Amino acid sequence: PPPHDDAAKSLQALPPDATPLGPPRTGAPTPSRAPSVVVPAAATVVGVTDPLSLPAASSPAAHPPPPLTPPNGGLRMVPPREHPAPTGLLPGERMAAAPISALQLGGAGDGTAAGTRCAGRLFVTSFRMVWEASSTAAAAAAASPGDDPPLSWPLVSLPLYSIDRFTKYHQTARSNGRGGSEPPPPPAADPEIEVEVYPKYGALPALRVLVAAAAFGRFSAVVRESRAPGFDRLFAATHAAAQARAGERGGAFCDYPPGTSPEAEFHRQGLNNPLSNWRVTALNREYGLCATYPRLLAVPRAVTDEALSRAAAFRSGRRLPVLCWKDAFGVASICRCSQPLVGVANKRSADDEALLRAIGETNPIGDTLHILDCRPKLNAEVNQVKGKGYEHASNYAATRLTFMNIENIHAMRSSLKAFLAVLKKQAAAGETSMPELEKSGWLEHLRMVLRAALHAARLLEHDRASVVVHCSDGWDRTSQVTALAQLALDPTFRTRRGFETLVAKEWLSFGHQFAKRCGTIAPLERGAQSSEEQSSPVFLQYVDCVHQLCEQFPSAFEFNSLYLAELLHHLTSCLHGTLLGNCERQRADLPPTLPLWPALSEPRFVNQSYAPGAHTTLHIDPGAVRPWTAYYCRGAERIKMEQLPLLETRCSQLADETERLRRRLQQLASDGEAAEAAPAAPPVAPVSPRVAPRRAEPTLVPFEEDQFVAPSFDDDADAEP
Questions:
Q1: Predicted confidence band of residue 249 (pLDDT cuts 50, 70, 90)
Q2: CA 201 → CA 95, 157, 205, 508, 538, distances in Å?
Q3: pTM confidence score
Q4: How far is CA 508 from the centre of its chain?
Q5: How much is the pLDDT for 652?
Q6: Active site residue 471
Q7: Active-site hit among 337, 471, 550, 574
Q8: In Å, what is the CA distance from 495 to each residue of 347, 500, 605?
Q9: Which residues contact 255 (CB under 8 A, 6 or more apart)?
Q10: Does 141 have pLDDT greater than 80?
Q11: Which residue has the higher pLDDT, 680 or 211?
């Protein structure tokens, strides 16, 4: 076979299904060919110095992308005589480089069994990286007997921004079985390497392949180039434009799901009542008051817009205290903000103190306004040295400050890495050790977040008190606590539409930095781009906490774990514009994109055990936290099909079948009523002179016990016509 090369002419010269790394054309993929790379337990890992672990390669300009895909939408950049791809490209998706040959190695998180191999090719498009089995391998997998074929699926697809890293293994010395070791074979002109592709927030690789080192170097460079920052090459916009040409148009920017809006949420909470102590201001309609806040803000009626502008200057990032939830049937409320700019000089702001006093006065039942600082006290004191800090009780009358001891983004990032490393180790050994998982600290961080939300919910439910929540900047830990507290207090947010409204309100509108924390797309402006130092699994941690609540209260939520896994998939897929950027202001400048929320409306995301009204308030148990292994060990899937996801999927299928049969019965009943209402047809004239013999109807005679009287018939049954 020809050498490994990305040149299109080399690929076009190959006969169908021929690949330098694959099995013969005439047979199914078999493990008969010994691997040229053996990965022992102590294999050398190379190239993990940056988030994608991409090695240095020649400039992408030296390898221009081939022409666009053929009209049939296949993933092949080869002549039509090649076999077509099992799935086509998405509307607007184009090939970014020529494919390279890659031999899939089983045992990764892609559904393949350990020790199996399959020939295929790696593709990179403007949206994703794809490994596709050759036609003979796919046919062999489909024809394999039993429930566990060598290849579980012929396609592995991973969005470009969902790739966390490439880990490369080079051949090292291995044991010869006699207490010694065998030296590696002499290096080839184009050596082969084993590559593991890891998804973000995943403990197991989504794909393991054996590829030529030089070809993969050029391939990975194209992947890195395709992840360029900025909105000018946004695939979500290209995809929406292509969908618009097909008749499905992307709408204008809106964080909220269809049928909801900030105004509707304000109305539901009773803010439109003339007697309410709150009002809605459009002071931030041009994002002049605070660049990371929404256009509409709910503030105490007693505070003027001029006082709000002065109070904003005393808060970090001008994120002044504003309302995010109020009891629709009471006066208790939740407000959010960032830390005050106190500094070592203990500065004060009369307008900021008056604003907090006005927030406390909106609740005539509670005597104390509770300020929940999500940080450990030591962290708050360190920030005070930097010119920021926390509220001092002597300056804020009728308030009580409580530190909730939730660690910062750096501790969460390190904890997740340790947690995933333990899960990977335990998955390889086929065991589960809770003490090892606890040492990573990830589960304890989940408990701390849940305890803070529980504390806030208890203050509002039992004490009828109002709370103000903040951390450092007010867009990470603050969003976690306020959103979880509302989820525990308000059953509306446990429906699918309500939960999406909650995410839009507390995370999108109030400026959680999705692009920075998740390493996705942001506009080309100063401070908007992501880096390893600024990345952190804050939103993942929130969704994990929601999953813990779904486990504790199985009938309280309308959505299931499949829904949460799909939401996390689109957190980094960048297919929709809803979760892009760092704030509402940046997303307002996006070109038209398809919204995320309609993609989460499929019936399979419905919790069939949902019982509306079964739980008014959720009494959270932080001690019941368990590792969500179905998600973290998912490999190439959205979620690992363990017992609970399988049951949820089956329940959803049965519900769909029940609904289909119900509609069928209604249709049959409607057809029957229409037939009865139709006029009777005229009698049909006989077609033969012979009249059919007439048989009399039987006469039913009642009978008593132990007595039977047969019915009598007329005797003229054989009468002539």
A1: low
A2: 26, 16, 11, 21, 11
A3: 0.78
A4: 15
A5: 67
A6: yes
A7: 471
A8: 44, 8, 11
A9: 504, 508, 509, 578, 584, 587
A10: no
A11: 211
